[in-house]
From TrEMBL:
UniProtKB keywords: Cell membrane, Membrane, Transmembrane, Transmembrane helix, Transport
Lineage, broadest ranks: Bacteria, Pseudomonadati, Pseudomonadota, Alphaproteobacteria, Rhodobacterales
GO biological-process terms attached to the record: alkanesulfonate transmembrane transport
Entry protein name: Bicarbonate transport system permease protein CmpB
Domain ABC transmembrane type-1 intervals: 98-278
Native source organism of the sequence: Tritonibacter horizontis
Broad class of the protein's primary localization: membrane
This protein's record includes keyword Transcription regulation: no
Gene: cmpB_1
């Protein structure tokens, strides 16, 4: 609204509106992208510093042949390991080992995702299904992957199928239990509110239960990927002919210390990359969490 100003020469005249004063524009809000980029760069820098410190301590321990409770006299120096790694990546057989392990992970993990999420959702919404399936989970879940190897070899027709089976078991249980936990944590008030509006059981399941359980499901998928690598390597060490686990165990059999560490580092890198890929694939389903914050 414009303020009114009286004319000094003609006091009887009606007040005239004064010139409109434009308020100062507020300072532009800072966008979140640069800040997030700075945080990511800071985190990356800290990770590089941390890794550099670890490699430096590793080098010092091997240089002085540290033997204080932990013996580093037979541990290869970092430069020897990196030299062996760069030599291996130029060979075809090394990439064959990596490709075989990745294929086994892809097959077994995909089966575990489908069955694990399905079983977890059923157990979370049905007391009968939970009472029927939970005893099997509680009995089989604590059995380590190594203990399954003899029986898996007897059960399955080929060593390849037995390795995939062992890897599948490792990924299955974290996915099932985290999915079950997510379904159980669904707020009952939301379910009743949707039901009061006339939603069917299928609609409640699709639009309330599953979205509420997605954070736990995503966590289970990430954990299952890590456990699947552990189970895969156990199978490859005992009964495999190819794979990064077999490569590492074969290096130990040949007393090739550099290749042992190369295999360990490659396993760690592949596990980290695959877990990051799972998190990246599930992040679009969890955008509502960022908006809620």
């Amino acid at each position: 609204m414009q303020p009114l100003v009286k004319d000094a020469e003609n006091p009887t005249a009606e007040p005239k509106p004064s010139a409109e004063v434009t308020p100062a524009a507020p300072p532009p809000a800072r966008k979140g992208v640069p800040r997030l980029s700075a945080e990511r760069l800071q985190g990356l820098a800290m990770a590089l510093v941390s890794l550099s410190v670890g490699i430096g301590l590793w080098h010092i321990a091997t240089a002085i042949n540290l033997d204080f409770y932990i013996n580093f006299s037979n541990v290869p120096a970092p430069w020897k390991v990196f030299s062996a790694f760069f030599a291996h990546i130029q060979t075809e057989i090394f990439w064959t080992h990596i490709g075989v392990s990745m294929r086994r992970i892809l097959i077994s993990y995909s089966i575990a995702v489908v069955l694990g999420i399905t079983i977890g959702l059923m157990m979370g919404r049905s007391r009968i299904a939970r009472a029927f399936v939970m005893p099997y989970i509680e009995v089989i879940r604590p059995i380590p992957a190594v203990a399954w190897i003899p029986l898996a070899i007897l059960m399955w027709p080929t060593e390849e199928s037995s390795i995939i089976y062992i890897t599948f078991l490792g990924a299955l249980f974290p996915i099932v239990l985290n999915t079950l936990h997510g379904v159980e944590q669904t707020p009952e008030v939301l379910v009743r509110a949707v039901q009061s509006l006339g939603a069917s059981r299928v609609a409640v399941f699709l639009h309330v239960v599953i979205p509420a359980a997605l954070p736990s499901i995503a966590a289970g998928l990430a954990i299952g990927m890590g456990v699947s690598w552990f189970s895969l390597l156990a199978g490859e060490i005992i009964s495999g002919q190819y794979g990064i686990g077999y490569f590492t165990w074969n290096a130990y059999s040949l007393i090739n210390y550099q290749d042992i560490v190369v295999g360990m580092l490659v396993i760690g890198g592949l596990g980290t990359a695959s877990t990051a890929a799972v998190k990246l694939a599930t992040s679009p389903m969890l955008k509502w969490q960022k908006r809620a914050r």
